[in-house]
């Protein structure tokens, strides 16, 4: 069975790719992350993923165009709910590509992160699976969190400190009010 895995970054892909391959999936990747800010961060994550993919022999389709304006145009009016749009747009792109290229299923490396909203991701993935006549593979990859970190350090991959969008960067680095 062929599966297309949306990949947000190399670090988050390590454990899902390992598990899916162990479960006899023929895994390919899709890099589409128009949320990442600034451009230098986008480029570092893209380059790191290319390095990882070469090391583990993973075929990846890359969306290398920096589309920050599209992302911001869709979330600036309601930054609190930005993740809904972000999940929907990235998974839609992945599901569409999977259907066009004859994959049986799709999933996302977002399911590796402790910080992502798994219920929303699952709901969106299952709805898109019905729309595109695919299987959405939901698996809670968070149990491999420490394995992924250890492996990414051993592989000397760039490790980012925030989700990727300008809002998560602010949440990570801007001091919060004590009120």
How large, in whole angstroms, is the Cα Rg?
Answer: 16 Å
| Residue-averaged pLDDT | 94
Strand line-up in the sheet with most strands: 3-2-1-4-5
> Gap between N and C termini, in Å?
52 Å
Give unreliable regions as ranges.
none
Beta-sheet strand percentage?
Answer: 5-15%
Question: What can you see in these coordinates?
Answer:
The structure is a single chain. By secondary structure, the chain is of the alpha/beta class. It has one domain: Rossmann fold, CATH 3.40.50. The chain is 51% helix and 11% strand. It is built from 7 helices and 5 strands; from the N terminus they run E-H-E-H-E-H-H-E-H-E-H-H. It has helices spanning 10-22, 39-56, 68-75, 82-100, 118-132, 145-154, 166-173, and strands at residues 2-6, 26-31, 60-62, 105-108, 135-136. The chain has a 5-stranded parallel sheet, sandwiched between helices. Strand 4 (105-108), helix 5 and strand 5 form a beta-alpha-beta unit. Helix 1 crosses helix 6 (145-154) and helix 4 (82-100) packs parallel to helix 5. The longest helix has 19 residues, at 82-100. The chain is globular.
Question: Strands, helices and their partners?
Answer:
Layout: E1 2-6, H1 10-22, E2 26-31, H2 39-56, E3 60-62, H3 68-75, H4 82-100, E4 105-108, H5 118-132, E5 135-136, H6 145-154, H7 166-173
Parallel strand pairs: 1-2, 1-4, 2-3, 4-5
Helix pairs in contact: 1-6, 4-5
